[in-house]
Amino acid sequence: MLRRPGQVRPMPPEFERRCVQLGLLAWHLDPNGMSVAEPTAPDLLAMWMSSRPMRRVLTDLASQWSGMDTIGPSEPIPGMWVFPFAETHRRRRTGYFVAIGFEPKILDSDLLEPSCVGGSLQLGSVKHQLAVHATLTPTCAKVLGSTLSWMLEDITSGTKVEQTIEGFTEQLALTYETVSMLSDLGTGMSAMGDPASFLRSVGEHISDTLQYGWASIVIEGRGEQGRTQYGNLRLDDVELDAVLDRIEEDNPDAMAGSTAIFGVADPGSPLAPQLVAHPIKGGGRVHGVIIAGGKMGEDPQVSTYETKSFQSLSGLLGAFLENVELYEDQRRMFFGTIRSMSGALDAKDRYTRGHSDRVAYLSAEIARKLGLSDDEIERIHISGILHDVGKIGVPESVLCKPGRLTAEEFDAIKRHPQIGYDILKDIPSLEDVLPGVLHHHERYDGKGYPHGLEGEDIPFMARIIGVADTFDAMSSNRAYRSKMSRDVVLGEIRAVSGSQLDPAAAEAFLQLDLAEYDRMVESHAAQDSMGEAA
Amino acid sequence: MSTPLILLADDEPHITHVMARAVRMAGFDVITAEDGEEAYELAAERLPDLIVTDLQMPYMSGIELAEKLCGREELAKIPVILLSARGYVVSEDSQHMKNVRLTLEKPFSAKFVIEQIRTLLDERSGGEEGAGKEAA
After folding, report:
1. Which of A258, A335, A492, B129 has its CA 20 to 30 A from that of A281?
2. CB distance A304–B87 less than 8 Å?
């Protein structure tokens, strides 16, 4: 809809077509009456009209019209009728659309011969052509003048309506794109687990929807986390610092929440002609900045339509990043809490030191081998860390007793799954891991404790932890015996698969590479001896 | 009191169209201009109660229009609302013109603009009454 200056607008095609049908010539003239394009007429007549004498007739007329607000039909030479219509753009006269018709008496005009000589045309042929077109009468000419003028008014107003609709359509498309972008991003904001892909999608939206060639979401990490950029624009640290400095310098308010826009002098830069930057704020903190440049489309200047979109985006991003941080904090606190619980147990019983971590690791690996989902693997891992937490409630004298346990002492030990369950059961986020804690001492043949569950009735999580727990117990020193060799332990696992242990979980375990497990054992042993030295 | 007359000036017909419809529905009389020059001519001829004008227009920008209106006593008192697609330019240029009462960034909500028109018109009639009372 926007027209570049200097662009020639053609004559309305409807006007041209109807003139031809009425036996008239149509001609587009500039404000001085000079031809903008060849007249629409049979070849010979077009050449004749373009001859110097005929062109002078029109330039003379145009100089009269230029002083007049309203112009009308005239008969500059006997038998030739000119119907002029002002062409305007933004209320300025930019030229004329002219229809030309002839009465038969044109054939007697004195101008006919000189105009043919000047244009090297054969008088006879021109006269013959003209005779075909010279059908007007004076009355008919008057009616034609009014009819043509109404017609052109209708055509012009129709064109204006079309342009308005085009404007509406463009605006509507842009509005729709923006709404859909914000809706997409609003929906994507729940992807807390994968912030990087969300941030990348914001970068893509800035390029695709807002039509910027280059966009970057720069996030300043917390603490030791560095700066991360998402999007198709990658600036190195020096360039980025230069941009951030300029934002501060040019617009001290930028970091307070307004959009900074500045020119890019180097026309070769992909960011030219303007760079726009908007801070991302959330929870009272600046998390980073949105940078975009290289605006595409007809208007390369950054408009308030876009700055408003940047504001919305930055608001969404701020809330999103704030939520991501809260989510991460919560996760860290959650893991910190469960680790401190298992740490409390380690402090009590040196023989089980590192046991919880190793069982957690092995259980997660068995779960992975069995093809369980990431969420399930994580739950099993957490359950592994906490499986023995109930031993906190078992007297130290029993836990660390070197010799054979009495029946009462053994009963005390057997209470630890229930104690662990009771300790954890009121923590809502641990609800999913409780089955592993309560049932990891059940046996596949139903002879385990605390409930004597059998086979598939034992929660799968507990069956997996049972395998890992059995293996690690046999592989470590205990108060009551020394550790067994790897071959003996693996043989024992095979032997009790299907009786004590779930055969599928045991089979999956036997396929594991135990290198990482051995590394954990060494590292725990090293911590142990350091602890003893201290 | 007669229905207030609002002059809307914007070179983008779809914007004037939407605005004119909304302002008319809100109970005002509306005239429109498609450039700053036409807006000035219409303002001088019809003396509207308020002018809502775009910033970037051919021949005469919204800022130039506001300045030119300031030059004639009977036109200087017409409150002007500037609409802009380049917010940062407006804030710098319009500060010295006392007839520019408000600058709004595009895209704007027609509803919001109408609220502002009402507020400014109320202020104006309120102000005149106030002045009358003081004089009495």
Report:
1. A335
2. yes
